[in-house]
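Input set for joint prediction.
Command: fold jointly, output C-alpha cells.
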Amino acid sequence: MGSEPTKVMVAVNGSTIKEYPHPSISSKRAFEWTLEKIVRSNTSDFKILLLHVQVTDEDGFDDVDSVYASPDDFRSMRETNKAKGLHLLEFFVKKCHEIGVACEAWIKIGDPKDVICKEVTRVQPDFLVVGSRGLGRFQKVFVGTVSAFCVKHAECPVLTIKRNPDETPSDLADD
Amino acid sequence: MGSEPTKVMVAVNGSTIKEYPHPSISSKRAFEWTLEKIVRSNTSDFKILLLHVQVTDEDGFDDVDSVYASPDDFRSMRETNKAKGLHLLEFFVKKCHEIGVACEAWIKIGDPKDVICKEVTRVQPDFLVVGSRGLGRFQKVFVGTVSAFCVKHAECPVLTIKRNPDETPSDLADD
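C-alpha cells >
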C-alpha cells in the first residue's frame, strides 16, 4: 500500500451512432463506472490515463463529399480528425477535473487493439479498463472485439465493463 | 459516489501444486493485487466477497488410497473436503481482517465457471475478480479457462489478473 497512486489506463473511443467526437456508449460507461466504483471519493489514490486510438482509414470515410486535390488536403483532413479526437478526450478530462482526480490523455493512430496493448507495455499502468459491447461469437467474427484481445494480450490486469442492457442499441455492433 | 461500499467478489481456488487447502497461485495473486491496487488504505469503501467453488469429482481423486465401503464413508469424504475448503477461505479472510476490510466467504459445489456466474447473478457484486493462468489457445481446449467464460457471461464487470511471469510454473496448466 505505497503512496504512489494506482495508474488506471482507460481506452476510449468515439460513438458509431452520434457524430465522432461523442464518446461511444461502452467507453463512456466504462469510464464513469470506474470513477464511481473504484476511485469513489479517494481521488488522490488514483491517476487516470486516457488513451484514444484513432483508426485513420475508417475515419476518412466521414469526408465522402470532400475533394482531395493536393497533399495539403490530406494534411488538413488529418488535422480535422485530430481535432475531433482531442474534443473526445476533452469530455473525459473535464469529468476527471470535476471530481478532482489527476489525469493524462493522449491520442495514437493505428489498430486499437494492437496500439492499446503496446501502450500498456510502454506506460505500464496498474490496470487497463476497456468497455465491451458484449457481442456474441458470430458477431465477433465480423466486427472483432478489442476487449477480448486486450484481456488476452495486455501485460497488466484488465477490467472489462459491458454496456447496461438499457443502453444497448438494437444493432449490437453500434456503440 | 454513495456511501455503500463497493462489493468486490473474488473467486478463489486451491493450488494444483501444493496440497489442497493452499490457494492457487493465480487466485492468491488476484486477491493480493486487488487489496494493494484497488482497496489500498480505503478499507471502509470496499467489501470483499470470497467465493470458493469445490469441484467434487476432481477432489475425490485425492483419496485414491481410501476404501469406500458405505454411504458414511462418502459423507466423511465430503466433510473432509469441506473442511479443506474452509481452511482455504480462512487464508483469505485472515488477510482481510489484517488490513481491516469487511469480508464474507462461502463455498459452493459444482462447475466453477457456471457457479461463479450464477453467484454473480444472485449476489450482484459491483465487480468480479478472477485470476488467470494466461493459457494459450491450444491449452484452453484441454483445460478450459474459467476467467474467459466469466468475462463473457458474468452479469457484472470482470477484472482479469494474470500470474506474474516469475510465479508461472513450468506446466502452465498448474496453478
